[in-house]
Design a protein that fits this description.
The complex is a heterotrimer. Chain B is mostly helical. Chain B has twelve helices and no strands. The relative contact order of chain B is 0.14. Chain C has helices at residues 19-49, 52-60, 62-95, 101-113, 116-127, 134-139, 148-158, 162-174, 177-184, 189-218, 221-227, 237-245, 252-281. Classes of the chains: A alpha/beta, B mainly alpha, C mainly alpha.
Chain lengths: 335, 274, 292
């Protein structure tokens, strides 16, 4: 077996490689959700430069992107994230329930630990051929709606709640009517992607569907990448203020000895430099000065917050998205 | 018997059992244990849910249909590859293994690219009102794709070993080609066809990578059981619900495995008698 | 279970091509072209569809290179491990009679018929945080799930029986006479194994290793459950393809296909070597008896 020594050699090489990779200092793992891929790619580099300038030390930040719920579960199951930057507070609450970080994590950073926000808008094909202007248009005969699976995608949960909240706030709106509307809405969905990015791809690259329910940041980015001549953004009469939070995972950061670094990383997002970066990636910044600078980029949208319409994420999760919750019920209804 | 004369029994038994136990049996018994310990209510919540029932229907129904199609296509391919000589035959024969050697994720995105409404084939089907990607047809297509080599490769050697004597016999009896095929060859091939069917079925039921891209993954429409399992694992928390579905899938594969081994015994008897 | 090897011995038929035959051949060609060849072609077409620059950028991406490296690493551990197992199992199954031998044979086949997703699930049930050994592993700082060991375990599971399935039927067909002769001449077990058995089955072994390797490098479902999907850390190449595919930028799909084309090349290479082995050494491979 002349192959054998080669294979042994490869295996040994692999082991050494693994050891070497583990030994490297000043690494930070940011476990994030799909639509922040570009944002953190740039933010990681910018932060590393700023950290080098301040402390003279090198740092390498890695970001993992995926569906928010999936990412949260990976951290629960032992993925050692120093910081999490997820789509919704519930995905971090779960980690707190497991003792991975303090229960009051959301009060540790400004603005409920959400350095940037977005809102839910519609992306339609150029010229808006199906004349989609507001939520009721999505359930018209023959309209196909693309939105990801709320069970696996955090962004999709904001979409779901935006639709529900809108229906609730119509004249004579109540839970039954909201439920009926959202049930109808999901019957118009031809493809249920696992994550927000997959949904964008289905709509943009595969040409499926008439309207993509997306975060404003996703819609603006698609438009920028593919040219304004391909897609229009439609702002509904009422939408939700999406607040994706960030937090240091105490247990992991303490174990890795990276707490100081992790905190500095998140605080960097609140600095003028960080906020400018956020806005350049189409998220709405929190700093008034930066908001003003990028005012032209964001259309005025009338929004409600999750707190106003649903209490908090714990309640929203239990009611709508838990096993056997409203989403599960409606996904079995109407067939 | 000279059995024990050869050294190495202890060592080879040790390695085999340790490896089999550690890699296969221990994890599978963890599944059985988990599924057994979750209680009837969890079982009922899973198996009784319309969505799960639907996914089971699609996975098993789809796999049955796909395996049947594989048998037809596989018989055609094996027949042509064994009996006829034509240009590109060797290339065709080699390509039969493709679904087996191509990573499932690659197969999945490739099939999607072909059959999406703006894909090479999807574009042609669109005017006919046929949509494959993101429908149950897409699920079926992916299942047919992954199962095909199992049927062809099961049939080929048997066809090779059978054809000569069968044809001789038939010719002396003055049977036409078709009669020869239908009355003589087909009954003899039955056990092999069923084995190929069972193998393609086992592969298609559990298939994940090549299906999920093209299926659209809609609850109650195009959602397969393996995807449901992944979603239940990803939901985090208790692994009980995932284990219940996993146990159902495992039981199904054991059943297929048993069927295959019975078929092979039948087959062997056939060959001996024949 | 299905061993997808074909060592057909082709005998030209002395018959002319009748209309019926022509139709059948045409149908078969159509079937191969449409169902098998097109998916392969579309991978390369999509990979280069956005131009060389996108292709090169996708391949040169640091996360992609780590994924390639990780895929090689996992295969470099899983394949030799399964090879050793396969050799041991084949030796055991063909040299001795013992109780439960048939059951053992069936169990060796088992991973073939288990869904890859279930293979991943069982790894989580044993090594996950709430699994059988999860607590103990966690307390000792050992990471299995969402780390390389989990990827290796899942891969070993799905690629488990290939080598054994190639060797057992061949060694059964070849019989033990030479081994016993060597034994009579006073050779030790290891000498018999390395000097007599191994040379006899080397091509079948290579064949099994080849199939095992293809499955190890291409596995998606099982590793997807245990990986955690960390680009640059726990993404193997198929997982990276998935992640880039769902990545959403304008060139995401082309980039995903660029990576997928590497796997497609591996597939082509596998099929090619497989053919060569069948062609040159078909007689030294297992025989039709064992095809199920």
């Amino acid at each position: 077996m002349r192959r054998f020594p080669l294979i042994v050699f490869l295996a040994l090489g692999a082991v050494f490689y693994g050891v070497a990779a583990q030994a490297q200092d000043h690494r930070l793992l940011n476990v994030s959700f799909d639509p922040t891929r570009e944002l953190y790619k740039e933010a990681n580099t910018a932060f590393a430069a700023s950290w080098k300038q301040q402390t003279g030390k090198d740092v390498r930040v890695t970001t993992s992107n995926g569906g928010s719920g999936k990412q949260s579960r990976a951290v629960q199951d032992g993925l050692e994230a120093d910081v999490v930057t997820l789509a919704l507070a519930w995905d971090i609450d779960v980690l707190a329930d497991r003792g991975l970080l303090a229960k009051d994590w959301q009060s540790r950073l400004p603005d409920h630990s959400t350095p940037y926000t977005s809102t839910v808008v519609f992306l339609v094909r150029k010229g808006n051929p199906k004349q989609i202007h507001d939520w009721p248009d999505l359930v018209r005969e023959g309209v196909q709606v693309i939105t990801p699976n709320p069970k696996s995608s955090g962004g999709a949960r904001w979409n779901f709640l935006a639709a529900w909240g809108w229906a609730l706030r119509q004249p004579g709106g109540n839970t039954d009517k909201a439920r009926a509307y959202v049930t109808q809405l999901y019957l118009h969905v031809p493809v249920l992607d696992a994550g927000a990015r997959g949904a964008t791809n289905t709509f943009v690259q595969r040409g499926i569907g008439d309207v993509l329910i997306a975060w404003e940041s996703e819609a603006l980015q698609s438009q920028q990448e593919l040219g304004k001549d391909k897609f229009d953004i439609v702002v509904p009469s009422l939408s939700i203020l999406a607040e994706p939070p960030v937090a240091v995972v105490d247990k992991v950061a303490d174990k890795h000895g990276t707490r100081q670094l992790a905190e500095a990383y998140l605080k960097f997002l609140y600095t003028p430099e960080g906020q400018d970066l956020v806005a350049r990636h189409f998220y709405r910044p929190r700093l008034p000065a930066v908001t003003e600078k990028y005012a032209a980029q964001f259309a005025p949208v009338k929004t409600f917050t999750l707190a106003e319409a649903f209490g908090d994420w714990r309640q929203a999760q239990a009611t709508y998205f838990a096993d056997g919750g409203v989403y599960d019920q409606i996904s079995e209804a109407g067939h | 018997m000279r059995n024990r004369a050869m050294p190495g029994f202890g060592l080879s038994l040790g390695i085999t059992l340790a490896w089999l136990g550690g890699i296969v049996l221990l994890p599978l018994s963890a599944l059985a244990w988990k599924a057994g310990s979750v209680g009837a209510s969890t079982w009922w919540a899973q198996i009784g849910s319309r969505r799960v029932l639907y996914a089971l229907q699609l996975s098993f129904g789809g796999a049955l249909v796909a395996a049947a199609i594989d048998v037809l296509l596989g018989l055609l391919l094996a027949w042509v590859l064994v009996r006829y000589r034509f240009p590109l035959r060797r290339v065709c024969d080699a390509l039969v293994d493709l679904p087996f050697a191509l990573p499932t994720a690659v197969a999945g995105i490739a099939l999607t690219a072909l059959y999406a409404p703006n894909g090479w084939i999807g574009r042609l089907l669109q005017p006919l009102g046929v949509q494959v990607a993101y429908t149950r047809l897409g699920v079926l297509l992916a299942m047919v794709f992954v199962g095909l080599p199992f049927v062809v490769r099961t049939l080929q050697p048997v066809l090779e070993s059978l054809e000569h004597e069968v044809e001789e016999a038939a010719r002396t009896l003055g049977a036409s080609r078709w009669q020869n095929f239908r009355r003589v060859l087909l009954p003899m091939l039955m056990p092999t066809l069923l084995t190929g069917f069972a193998l393609a079925l086992a592969r298609a039921v559990g298939e994940y990578g090549s299906v999920i891209y093209i299926s659209g993954n809609l609850p109650m429409r195009t959602e397969i059981v393996p995807l449901l399992i992944v979603q239940k694992i990803d939901a985090g928390g208790d692994t009980g619900p995932a284990a219940v579905l996993g146990a159902v899938m495992l039981a199904a594969s054991l059943l297929v495995l048993l069927t295959v081994s019975l078929l092979q015994r039948w087959n062997r008897r056939w060959m001996e008698v024949g | 279970m299905a061993t997808l090897d074909s060592h057909a011995t082709y005998r030209p038929r002395g018959l002319g091509v009748s209309v019926g035959q022509g139709v059948l051949i045409a149908l078969a060609l159509l079937c191969v072209a449409g169902l098998l060849l097109l998916p392969l072609l579309v991978v390369f077409a999509e990979a280069f569809g956005k131009g060389w620059a996108v292709f090169v950028a996708a391949i040169a991406d640091p996360d992609a290179r780590t994924a390639v490296w990780l895929t090689l690493t996992v295969a470099a551990i899983a394949v030799p491990a399964n090879m050793v197992f396969g050799l041991a199992a084949a030796w055991l199954m063909t040299h001795y009679d013992f109780r439960g031998k048939q059951l053992l044979g069936a169990l060796i086949d088992l991973p073939f018929s288990v869904s890859p997703v279930v293979a991943g699930l069982v790894c989580v049930l044993v090594y996950g945080v709430n699994g059988w050994f999860g607590g103990w592993l966690d307390a000792h700082g050992v990471r299995v799930i969402f780390a390389v060991p989990g990827l290796v375990l899942a891969t070993v599971f799905v690629a488990f029986p290939f080598v054994a399935r190639e060797l057992i039927p061949l060694m059964q067909t070849l019989g033990n006479e030479e081994e016993h002769a060597a034994r009579t001449l006073g050779a030790s077990g290891w000498q018999i194994f390395f000097r007599v058995t191994l040379p006899k089955v080397r091509w079948a072994l290579l064949y099994g290793v080849l199939l095992s390797n293809a499955r190890s490098m291409g596995e998606f479902g099982a590793v997807s459950v245990v990986s955690g999907h960390l680009p640059g850390l726990t993404n193997t190449l198929p997982l990276q393809v998935d992640q880039v595919y769902n990545g959403g930028s304008a060139s995401a799909i082309a980039a995903a296909f660029a990576l997928a084309s590497l796997l497609a090349l591996l597939t082509l290479l596998t099929l090619l070597i497989k053919r060569l082995v069948e062609w040159r050494h078909g007689g030294e491979l297992a025989h039709p008896v064992r095809r199920h």
